UniProtKB/TrEMBL annotation:
GO biological processes: positive regulation of sporulation resulting in formation of a cellular spore
Protein name (record): KinB signaling pathway activation protein
InterPro entries in alphabetical order: KinB-signalling_activ
First and last residue of the signal peptide: none
Lineage: Bacteria, Bacillati, Bacillota, Bacilli, Bacillales
Keywords: Membrane, Transmembrane, Transmembrane helix
Transmembrane portions of the chain: 17-36, 56-79, 91-110, 122-140, 152-172, 178-197
Organism: Saliterribacillus persicus
Length: 205
């Protein structure tokens, strides 16, 4: 399989990437559920009902596996799109990605704010977009440092645009719990895949 930058990734490493990302998705969703869905756990803590708590952990793990699959589909879809973009737009492809990053961040703030029925403040939506941008900038910087400078914009594009697209089902829910429960494993899984891929490509075995 061809990966980031067109280098070959052995099928053995693809399988490793799939299962490791799957486990990360399940684990991070369970951890996030303790914060986002704490009231669900509280029902069974006094008195402690280990069977019900275990059931919740299994449910959130399964949900995390689904989020992980969404992340992986988005990642490999982007690897394909990136190759097409490079072959079709050539030197203009980074510029197009920068424009799409800006549009995505604007949409993440404006359309979410306009979609709220009540007259709430726009600040929380700005804060989310800024946090995503700063985090993605840091991860893209790490990617560029470990590979090459030209990897910065594609990595930033992936972390912002692709993550936001993957997050759309969560953003469309009425309550905010599902959105927060979804974004945590998506960001962690996307970060992991982005930063681990070049290491898998460099492996000989």
């Amino acid at each position: 399989m061809h990966g980031y930058g067109g280098r070959f990734v052995k099928s053995r490493n693809v399988v490793r990437l799939f299962f490791s990302t799957l486990l990360i998705g399940g684990f991070t969703t369970v951890i996030a559920s303790f914060f986002v869905k704490w009231e669900r756990y509280q029902e069974f803590l006094n008195p402690f009902d280990w069977f019900e708590v275990l059931g919740l952990i299994i449910v959130f793990s399964a949900l995390g596996f689904v989020f992980s699959l969404v992340s992986q589909m988005g990642f490999f879809a982007y690897l394909t799109v990136n190759q097409f973009g490079l072959s079709i737009f050539r030197s203009f492809w980074p510029i197009i990605q920068v424009v799409l990053i800006g549009v995505t961040l604007f949409d993440l703030v404006y359309f979410r704010y306009k979609g709220v029925a009540d007259e709430s403040s726009i600040f929380p939506y700005l804060l989310v977009a800024m946090a995503l941008f700063v985090y993605s900038w840091i991860i893209a910087g790490i990617k560029a440092k470990e590979t090459n400078r030209s990897a910065f914009i594609p990595a930033l594009f992936f972390m912002i645009v692709v993550t936001t697209i993957e997050w759309v089902p969560g953003l469309r829910t009425n309550g905010g719990d599902y959105a927060w429960l979804m974004i945590v494993p998506l960001i962690i899984c996307n970060t992991y895949q982005l930063l681990i891929l070049h290491r898998l490509q460099d492996k000989k075995g």
